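Board notes (copied after class):
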Amino acid sequence: MSEHLTADVCVLGAGPVGGTLACRLAAAGIATAVVDRAQLPPMEHPAFDGRAYAIAAGSRRLLKDAGIWDRLAGSACPIKDIRVSDGRLGRAASPLFLHFDHRAAGEAAFGHMVEARSLRVALNGRMHVLPTLRVIAPATAEVERRDEGATVRIVGGPDIDCRLVVAAEGRDSPLRRMAGIPVTHLPYDQTGIVCAISHEHPHHNVALEHFLPSGPFAQLPMCASPDALDGGAPNVSAIVWTERTAIARSMLALDDAGFAAAIARRLGGHLGTVRVVGRRWNYRLGALHAHRYFDTRLVLVGDAAHTIHPIAGQGLNLGFRDAMALADLLIEASRRGEDLGAPDLLRRYQHRRRPDNLLMLAATDALDRLFSNDNPLVRLARDVGIATVHRAPPLKRLFIRQAMG
């Protein structure tokens, strides 16, 4: 006979969004279980692998409330300024640019860059010390949802009776598919390339977003990691490079010297000589949006509900905003003794999050279509637009608030 466990909430998916949500709920005293298909310790890569996350200032509140931020603070690199420019490969960037200064926002930083492995280690460490959180991984789960509750059956393990199941399994969410929730897809003929570089000159905590006809190219400041450095270089940045898929394949096939030269050609010379550190990662790009965020005893968060173009670096932060909104609603409802899986509560979550997510989907899609072309008239219009925002403090503050979450 299977062992039976009881929880208020069961989160399927222990990635950054699902794991952080589980920690936040458990820290507030809500009995929570988190289940993941993968074994968690191997996800703590012992060596730097080139991946990093941009954590917006608004997302830090969730990580702090979940007890994760204090485990990250030492390795988080502040983004103090952001520079946006437009250009063409092999030519100097347009003299019309947009610069965001953290002092104008009244904050110490717009956000922080955090190594993927650092966040994984912090999450794993926090999840295993919370008395109200049960972690089950690796595990295969089968979910039965009823009007009165749900049961998550772990193959070869316990059954978990709960009030609410959270789908945090990513863009191919099996739970979303089983619930029959339709999605809208926006394909892009683009591939995202992610890696890290060491460079000769310091980045001064400035992030660069350089728009090129094939897609945006971003350099994001990171704190130096001793095992990430090449010859003891103290300067490290993350690269998020969007390229037409055919060109991306040829770039990824280059040796390290050729790949570094391709990065330098797009980056410009302000950081001096660059070298690639860690692995190269690549992802086919596409946007997705679920037509609804909940079903009977089920709610979607993060990539299970929506994915967007990486042009603004807000994908993970939208997921964190989902987790923040859902956690606030569930904690409030728990204190009032309400049913945590009630349809009205889940509808309120959807009402809070869907407009923001749809707005960001539309904005990033429009930005990609606007900037990922080489039409001279469009180039002139967008360069003038960039310069106009740069000289209009109210518009700049609007963009700053959105970027900071």
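Comment from the instructor: Residues 343-371 form the longest helix (29 residues). The chain has a mean pLDDT of 87.
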